[in-house]
Design goal:
By secondary structure, this protein is mainly alpha-helical. The protein is built from 21 helices and no strands. Helix 3 runs antiparallel to helix 5 and helix 12 crosses helix 14.
């Protein structure tokens, strides 16, 4: 692969990854005031509603960006500009119809879908129209990604998250205002606060949609010029386009829905089993609120990077696959896995070691120290397998092996359910069982996908540079940040000041140690470094440190 091609793919991936991580950070910043406003139970009700919304979105239209991106990139590789545009128009119609129907299903089915967590009904009804807007927004994002530009998607995600943060808190406060003042978080405050947070999600999506429509209007003049010079003889009919979309979307829907149905399955089993064991429903919501509102939020920050790199590489893999360029395709596979592990492994170590200051600073001492920190310490390793399973899923879909992840996801869900059921019924681990179950799912998915990638592409995974060297460097980093944490809390008490000082010292020094480790162990050759974004700057810094 040429330097420019690698640079383009990695640069687009880094842009999208940076935007995704920034969105997660913004999400973290408003979690603390939201916890204080609506309580753990309110966050739990919102999580129940959001999980159901997410499943309906997955089934109806979540896979649309991937399908549109994949289909458009394959045609652009062949310079079929008219067919690429017709796919966009067909996808818009599909998204509007399916998204509208799904929104109505979520609205009218809310009382049934939430099960025993009736406090989540109002939140689910408030968030249900978002499914329609998300479907249309997904088509636009897939369109831009198919044209190999992640900038509109990245900016729209940041705008969406900022508006989401502002309006989640604002609308939560407006809806709970009639029930204030109150000495404690009541059922009414929790349920109405969750509904307000759901409205914030909807406002964010609508704003992102408006932004993407404006960018599309500006971009369309270039597309018109390409279409006028298109010499393609075969113009695809909309009936054929709909068939192509369905053939692409349906397997992705099934695999993605199965892949992402674990939160809803976990929530249902967790709630029903613990209630049957005598625990109060409100207490169960609080426990699930810690898992979903603290542990999952933090674990998903590195996952945003993996998802972004996957979205960036799929058009490259699809284009290479369509042209029969296996060597180029395998080079893309190697690069995306290597970069994903280079980031995921140190993130896992960092979250595991710094679990107390991270939780304490973001969620407050009361909410951060205790169960939240314990869950993060126990489940930090899942970051590596979750990122790997996400990337490998995208690789298989990019190679047109759409059904393979379905089978793997079904097997992995069975692993998840078995671990969760045994853990909840036979032990007293309670919330920790959710961590074990989701980790088991991602491990099973990663291993199954790895075997299939080798089978269908001939790609042979390299272990030393991809896994062992970043793991060794991350362990060195973990020792250093562990010592910094120990020393910090010898002089400063647990509290926001102590947590902040610890992280301010540990994160940059830990990153420096990790950088020295990966360069010193020659995870990348100088030639490979030149092919990555800002590679020349990295080489210059490494030579100043006498690492190269």
């Amino acid at each position: 692969m040429s330097k420019n091609r690698k640079n383009s793919f990695l640069m687009q991936g880094m842009i999208l990854a940076g935007a995704s991580i920034l969105c997660r950070v913004i999400g973290l910043l408003y979690r603390s005031p939201l916890f204080g406003l609506i309580g753990k139970a309110g966050v739990g009700y919102y999580s129940v509603a959001y999980n159901i919304y997410n499943i309906i979105l997955l089934i109806s239209s979540f896979s649309i960006p991937l399908a549109v991106s994949k289909s458009i990139s394959a045609r652009l590789a062949k310079k079929e500009y008219i067919n690429a545009q017709r796919i966009f128009y067909g996808a818009l119609v599909y998204a509007a119809v399916v998204g509208g129907i799904a929104s109505l299903v979520a609205w009218f089915g809310a009382p049934v879908f939430v099960g025993e967590q009736k406090g989540a009904v109002l939140a689910l009804k408030c968030i249900s129209p978002t499914i329609f807007f998300s479907a249309v927004l997904g088509v636009l994002r897939g369109y831009f990604q198919g044209h190999n530009t992640m900038v509109p998607t990245s900016i729209s995600q940041i705008i969406e998250q900022i508006l989401n943060a502002i309006f989640s808190i604002l609308m939560a406060y407006v809806l709970i205002l009639p029930f204030l003042p109150s000495e404690k978080i009541t059922y009414a405050i929790a349920s109405h606060g969750a509904a307000g947070s759901a409205i914030g999600t909807e406002v964010g999506v609508i704003t992102g949609l408006i932004f993407c429509l404006i960018i599309y209007k500006m971009y369309h003049s270039k597309v018109k010029i390409q279409m006028r010079h298109d010499k393609t003889k075969y113009i695809e009919s909309y009936r054929n386009i709909l068939k192509i979309l369905l053939m692409t979307i349906t397997p992705v829907i099934l695999s993605t829905a199965i892949y992402n149905c674990c939160p809803t399955i976990d929530m249902t089993l967790f709630s029903s089993i613990l209630v049957d064991k005598g625990m109060k429903s409100f207490k169960v919501s609080e426990l699930y609120g810690v898992f979903s509102g603290q542990y999952n939020v933090l674990i998903n920050i590195p996952l945003a990077m993996a998802s972004a790199l996957t979205n960036a590489v799929i058009p490259n893999i699809s284009g290479a696959y369509a042209l029969g360029q296996r060597e180029k395709m395998n080079e893309n596979i190697q690069m995306v896995i290597k970069f994903t592990m280079m980031i995921a492994i140190p993130c896992a170590v960092g979250l595991g070691v710094l679990n107390v200051p991270i939780n304490g600073l973001i969620f407050g001492v009361e909410n951060g120290v205790g169960l939240g920190a314990g869950l993060l310490r126990a489940g930090a390793v899942s970051v590596v397998f979750t990122c790997m399973s996400t990337v490998s899923n995208g690789i298989l879909q990019g190679m047109d092996k759409m059904r393979v992840p379905i089978y793997h996801a079904a097997i992995s869900v069975c692993v998840n359910v078995v671990v969760l059921y045994i853990g909840l019924t036979q032990t007293s681990l309670n919330t920790y069982t959710l961590v074990l179950a989701t980790t088991g799912f991602s491990i099973a998915m990663s291993l199954l996908n790895a075997v299939s990638i080798r089978k269908y592409s001939g790609y042979r995974q390299e272990f030393a540079k991809t896994f062992l060297k970043p793991a060794f460097s991350a362990v060195l980093m973990g020792i250093v940040i562990g010592v910094i944490q120990f020393v910090t809390f010898r002089f400063l008490p647990y509290g926001r000041v102590g947590f902040a000082v610890c992280l301010i010292l540990a994160i940059p020094l830990g990153a420096l140690v990790y950088f020295i480790g990966i360069i010193g162990t020659k995870m990348f050759t100088e030639e490979e470094l030149r092919s990555v974004p800002k590679g020349t700057l990295i080489i210059r810094l490494a030579k100043k440190l006498r690492l190269l």
